[in-house]
Amino acid sequence: MNTGRGRRIMTRRLAAAGALALAAGASHGADRPNVVLIYADDIGYGDLSCYGAVKVKTPHCDRLAAAGVRFTDAHTVASVCTPSRYALMTGEYAFRKKGTGIASGIEGLLIHTNRTTLASMLKGAGYATGVVGKWHLGLGTNPTDYNAPIRPGPREIGFDSAWILPATGDRVPCVWVENDRVVNLDPADPIRLDYSIRRGDPGSFVNGIPRIGGQTGGTAALWKDDEMSLVIAQKGCEFIEKSKGAPFFLFLATHNIHVPRVPNPRFKGTSECGVRGDAIVEFDWIVGQVLDKLDALGLAGTTMVVLSSDNGGVNDNNGPDAAHGIGDPDGTNGHPPNGPLRGTKGSVWEGGTRVPFIVRWPAKVKPGVSGALVSQVDLLASLAALTGQAIPAGQAPDSRDHLAALLGTDATGRETLLEQSNGGAPFGFRHGPWKLLPRGDGKKGGGGPALFNLADDLGETNNLAAAQPERVAAMTAELAAITGQTAAPAADAKAPGKAERRKRR
Ligand code: CA
After folding, report:
1. Do 336 and 463 share a structural domain?
2. 81 is a catalytic site residue
């Protein structure tokens, strides 16, 4: 190789190797942006003013959208909290793992510690990783003992630090957990939980608000409901401040706007659609706090901010809350939580899983609007591609690299997409603009498959299944190939689903 040609080749190889080395150790901010994932709870497709809301204004979300890509066809995996979060974190459809329906406050950690997660993958890429806010993925082992170190938890699946509320605001325990300890717990006043107590029963009241389950003890550790958002904003900003010197990943999961909706008094009356709207304004305020912090630290340009929600919106009348003076059942003033979409949280209509989704990364992402079909299950593989991380065999089995769609350069995204309900079926299934509901359109007596063309029927009103049996068959087969379950449409056509049977009782 000691010839002129050989030296030239060697020089080129060295240059290439140098370029590779540079890429591998890419400077912070170029190919390894900080990642702040702001994950709202129960905010629907129509709940932000950048998505068409009129009776509630969300200027901070809107400024994020104006500087990033705003997606119009982005989805959670499921239409309720726990399975959406499970799929987001693991890159695996939640229906594949038993027990990933809505978790109680004493459920053990639902993600096995040997799994690759969004957090562990980014930690492997050299990121400082933190979670602040609503967890709802189980903690410790069932039934969780909150009076001892709570392990395993977020720190066993990739987060360096955690400041979380264990389940939901309407479930006990009503305490903050920092890393593996309940904050301000007095050992002389241990926490005792009773999940046989139902929401609204006399024993279910904590801080005057009915919860799912009862809590006694842990009095000094009780959170203050109307300060929850202030605490989440503050802890999120503290994490950013503390981590600013190295690439960081913050999973900021707000409690807003899940019930009980108890916004801080400063937000009372800030929307024209009642307490639910005020809780959206409060969510927007949290977003503003985070954006301001990034601006103040000079990190806005080198930080990818992803904003989304864990499922669609619902006009909850707050159930027992309303009966006890919390919430405002009549104050929604005609505001549509899911905009033009049909269905709500808990359904596999588009309103159950199609949610706001915004990606801002000024260094790389050109502002715009994208109609690409996007699923949250793909964040893991896409961010692994961005940061040059390999996903171990067998991990994140349903996550695909759609980084180009997330960065706004691929206008198509996924070809197909699965939507699931709570524990699994019923499913919804998308192939481009086509939407299949194997178990029908929910109309009384209409249990057969339903097919809609969202390109001209976004509200899923015109069932084309009878007119297009071949497309129904093809999409049914595609879905079955993913789930391993046959939809059994013939049986469904005659027998109402469980929910329908319950209603009839
Ligand atoms: Ca939720």
Report:
1. no
2. yes
The pLDDT of 311-327, averaged and rounded, is: 73
Residue 344 sits in the same domain as residue 440: no
In tens, the pLDDT along 467-480 reads 999 999 999 999 99
Instruction: Choose one of 384, 409, 434: the last residue of a domain.
Output: 409
- Dump pLDDT digits (tens) for 16-49: 433 333 344 444 444 799 999 999 999 999 999 9
What is the C-alpha separation between 383 and 406, in angstroms, rounded?
A: 10
For residue 446, what is the domain's CATH number? 3.30.1120.10
Q: Which of 96, 97, 354, 133 is nearest to 230 (CA)?
A: 133
Is 166 inside any structural domain? yes
Same domain, 154 and 189: yes
* Nearby residues for ligand 1 (ion, Cβ within 5 Å): 41-42, 81, 310-311
CA of 280 to the centre of ligand 1 (A): 14
State whether the Cα torsion 225-227-233-238 is positive or negative: negative
> Where residue 88 sits, what CATH number does that domain have?
3.40.720.10
Query: What total of structural domains would you count in the chain?
Result: 2
pLDDT tens readout for residues 283-303:
999 999 999 999 999 999 999
Share of the chain above pLDDT 90, in %: 81
Residue 414 lies in a domain: no
State the distance from the centre of ligand 1 to the C-alpha of 26, rounded, in angstroms: 36
User: pLDDT tens-digit profile of 126-141?
Assistant: 999 999 999 999 999 9
Q: Give the distance (Å) from ligand 1 centre to CA of residue 85.
A: 9
Which candidate, 182, 191, 172, 179, places its Cα nearest to that of 106? 172
Give residue 258 CA to ligand 1 midpoint distance, Å: 6
Instruction: Say if 4 falls within a structural domain.
Output: no
Rounded to whole angstroms, the Cα distance separating 359 from 302 reads 13
Residue type, 382: S
Known active-site residue 258: no
Which of these three, 357, 380, 409, is where a domain ends?
409
Going from the Cα of 311 to the center of ligand 1, the distance in angstroms, rounded, reads: 5
Q: What is the pLDDT of residues 411-467, one digit of tens each?
A: 999 999 999 988 778 899 999 999 999 988 766 555 789 999 999 999 999 999 999
Distance CA 504, CA 496 (A): 10
**379 class by beta-carbon count within 10 Å (0-12 exposed, 13-18 middle, 19+ buried):** buried
| Residues 377 and 450 occupy one common structural domain | no
Q: How far is the CA of 82 from the centre of ligand 1 (A)?
A: 8
Segments forming the whole domain that contains residue 474: 425-504
pLDDT tens-digit series, residues 63-87: 999 999 999 999 999 999 999 999 9
- CA–centroid distance, residue 105 to ligand 1 (Å): 15
Tell me if 200 sits within 8 A of 320, measured CB to CB. yes
Q: Which of 81, 174, 237, 273 is catalytic?
A: 81
| Same domain membership, residue 454 and residue 355 | no
Distance from C-alpha of 163 to C-alpha of 165, rounded to nearest angstrom: 7
- Please identify which of the residues 60, 75, 136, 402 carries the catalytic annotation: 136
- Within a domain: 141: yes
